[in-house]
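dumping this here so i dont lose it
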């Protein structure tokens, strides 16, 4: 316990799913948490996103660990709003040590308009850049930046268009491109920040057991042979993604990696692409 004792960590997309898991785990290890989430749906994303109630529940979960929490409904696509909300939170908690740029969406489906592409790219990549750049003025030596990519996006890049790797459709293409850019951006950022003793690393999960995975458009991607596939139908296909015989990893599996990269245990680790993918990348 106490691996990130007395650090202050920003987690975007923190109301539920992976983000809430990361926030609670870091709080259990001694960090105070800033929780941001959009708390409304995004056009063309056909599964519901977190609500203000979800964000409040996440804040209370953090506080149950005995640590402080500040939460706000913020759209990571809005650099100005993000900068202002972060300044207020840092003013309340006193500093910022770690950024976990986790917020993301994955709109899927055939025949989607170009808006699905732009929304996915803007949330998943521009939102990461906005989060990091809003936070940089608050960081000092020893700070850590962790971005969340996706092994599916990397596989789509490696396999090429139309190969069936990674999310598909206009929204899926925006998602894939965003996750590929996150990877390149984080490595380039790490090189720029190393002389300042600020670290930047990217975590690439495979399928994770959250609402982003459990919805009909995603089930359809894994079971295109069925008109209306359900969870049990998709569970038969999910293991095809990984090298290990599992359908998905749990949010806490990713949180372990996040906690390591946020802690001083990784004080000399920067520019790392850490894949929590159960061997998915080994299949290509």
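and the seq i came up w/
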């Amino acid at each position: 316990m106490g691996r990130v004792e007395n650090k202050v960590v920003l987690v975007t997309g923190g109301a539920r799913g992976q983000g809430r898991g990361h926030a609670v785990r870091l709080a259990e290890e001694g960090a105070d948490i800033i929780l941001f989430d959009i708390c409304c749906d995004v056009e063309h994303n056909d599964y519901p996103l977190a609500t203000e109630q979800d964000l409040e529940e996440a804040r209370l979960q953090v506080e149950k660990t005995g640590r402080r929490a500040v939460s706000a409904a913020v759209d990571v696509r809005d650099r100005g709003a993000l900068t202002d909300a972060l300044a207020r939170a840092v003013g309340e908690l006193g500093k910022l040590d770690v950024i976990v740029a986790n917020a993301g969406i994955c709109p899927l489906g055939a025949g989607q308009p170009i808006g699905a592409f732009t929304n996915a790219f803007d949330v998943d990549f521009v939102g990461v850049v906005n989060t990091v750049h809003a936070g940089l003025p608050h960081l000092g030596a020893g700070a850590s930046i962790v971005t969340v990519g996706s092994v599916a996006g990397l596989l789509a890049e490696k396999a090429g268009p139309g190969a069936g790797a990674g999310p598909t459709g206009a929204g899926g293409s925006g998602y894939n491109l965003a996750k590929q850019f996150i990877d390149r951006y984080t490595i380039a950022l790490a090189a720029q920040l190393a002389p300042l003793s600020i670290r930047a690393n990217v975590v690439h999960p495979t399928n994770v057991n959250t609402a982003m995975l459990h919805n009909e458009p995603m089930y359809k991607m894994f079971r295109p042979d069925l008109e209306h596939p359900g969870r049990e139908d998709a569970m038969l296909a999910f293991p095809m993604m990984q090298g290990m015989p599992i359908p998905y990893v749990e949010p806490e599996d990713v949180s372990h990696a996040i906690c390591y990269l946020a802690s001083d245990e990784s004080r000399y680790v920067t520019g790392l692409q850490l894949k929590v993918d159960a061997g998915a990348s080994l299949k290509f």
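The radius of gyration is 18 Å.
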